[in-house]
Amino acid sequence: MAGKQGYHHGNLPQALVDAGLTLARAGGPGAIGLREVSRQAGVSHNAAYRHYADHHELVAAVAARCMDRLGALMRARTEAVTGPPGAQRAWARLNALGRAYVDFARAEPGWFRTAFTGAGVGAGTEGGEGVQLPADHPFRQLNAALDDLVDAGALPHGRREGAEYAAWSSVHGLAALLVDGPLQHLPESEVRRALDTVLAVVTRGL
C-alpha cells in the first residue's frame, strides 16, 4: 500500500515538504500540489491530508523551508566577512547580505518565488508582536546587521528606525526585476552593475 510505504521512512511531514521543495525548485509555488507531493513521497493522497489540512498549508510549509535556504546563504556569506570589529566590517556584512539575497534569487528562482508565497509573517514580529521569526530569517539578519552599524558608530541612531524596510525593499525589488521582470535578460556585467548601484544607494541613504 502506498500509505504504508510512506510511513515506513518515519517522518511523513518532512518527506512531504522535501517533495514540495523538489517541485518548487523546478516550477515555483505553482508546481506544489498535494497529489503530486503525495505521489513523490510515496504515500496516498489521504495520508498527506492527515498532516496538511489543504494546499495552502502545504505551500506555507514549503515556503518556510525555502526562506530557510535563503537565510542560510545569507548567514554563510556574512560569516565569511572577516576583519576586526568596526564600521568597515559592519558595512561589508550588510553588503554581503544584499549580494547573497540577489544571488539566491537568480540561482534558485523557484525557491525564491516560493519563499514569498504564503510566508505570512507580520512586519511587527521584531517588535514583539505576531509570529516570532527564526533566528536566520532574512528580516532578522537584516535588522541585526543594521544594529551592528549603529553599535559600530557607522549609522546614527536617529536613522536606524525603519531602515530595514527601505533596505529590504530596494534589494528585493531588484531581485524580483531580475528574476521575473524586465531586467531578467540583462547581461551578467550589467546585473553586477545594477546590484552595485542599488547597494551603494542603500548605503548612502543610510
TrEMBL record:
Residues 10-70 form the HTH tetR-type domain. The keyword Transcription regulation applies. SUPFAM superfamilies: Homeodomain-like, Tetracyclin repressor-like, C-terminal domain. InterPro entries: Homeodomain-like_sf (IPR009057), HTH-type_TetR-like_transc_reg (IPR050109), HTH_TetR (IPR001647), MT1864/Rv1816-like_C (IPR025996), Tet_transcr_reg_TetR-rel_C_sf (IPR036271). Coiled coil: none annotated. Residues 33-52 bind DNA. The keyword Flavoprotein does not apply. It comes from the Bacteria. Keywords: DNA-binding, Transcription, Transcription regulation. This is WHG domain-containing protein. The lineage of its organism: Bacteria, Bacillati, Actinomycetota, Actinomycetes, Kitasatosporales.
